Amino acid sequence: MLAPCLLRRAILTVPLVFVVALLVSEPVRADQEAGTAIPAESRPCVDCHAFEFMQRALQDLKKTAYNLDTRTETLLLQVEKRNLCDCVAANLLN
């Protein structure tokens, strides 16, 4: 007879404890991130990262353009040298 009364009290008490715990606890705001929050002053901005990335990309493009220009110039000099050698050899044979 005592057991059904205790069971009924437990069934009513457990949900009541959960409701009180939810009401007492502080709700989590949507703007809070999980983990440690880093203040905005100490975080580098996204624009700064984008600017640094674009600067590096521009430097890489400049190096590539310089290398291509140098390679093209070298190839043109080799072609001119061959043409001169062919011309000199043809003149010697005549």
From TrEMBL:
Intracellular or extracellular location(s): Secreted
Signal peptide: 1-30
Keywords: RNA-binding, Secreted, Signal
Cellular component GO terms held in the UniProt record: extracellular region
Entry's Gene Ontology molecular function annotations: RNA binding
UniProt xrefs under Pfam families: Neuropep_like
InterPro entries per UniProt: NICOL
Acetylation as UniProt keyword: no
Family membership noted in the UniProt record: Belongs to the NICOL family.
Protein name: NELL2-interacting cell ontogeny regulator 1
Source species of the chain: Malurus cyaneus samueli
